[in-house]
Design brief:
With 88 residues, the protein is an all-alpha fold. It contains four helices and no strands.
Length: 88
Amino acid sequence: MNHKQFDLEQGILNCWNICEDMKIIAENVLEAKTVDRDKLANILIGMADLYQLKFEKTFSDFEETIRYYYEQRKDNKLTENIEDRHDF
C-alpha cells in the first residue's frame, strides 16, 4: 500500500479539527463578558491560514494517491496484486 493513502486519511481526519476549534472559539466568545475583537480576528485569521495549509497538503496527498493507483492500474500491477491476494 502506498504511504500517501495513509497520509490522505490522516489529513482528512485532521481537517475535521476545524469543527472543534470553532466550537472552542464560540464558547469563549459566548462566555466572555467583553470580547477583544482584535484578538478574536487574529485567532480567526490564523486559523484560516492554518487550515488553508492543511487543506492544500491533504489535496496534494489526494492527488498523489490517485496518481499512484492510476499508475498501478495502467501497468496492471493493481489487478495483479489483487489476484495474488485472492483466489479467483
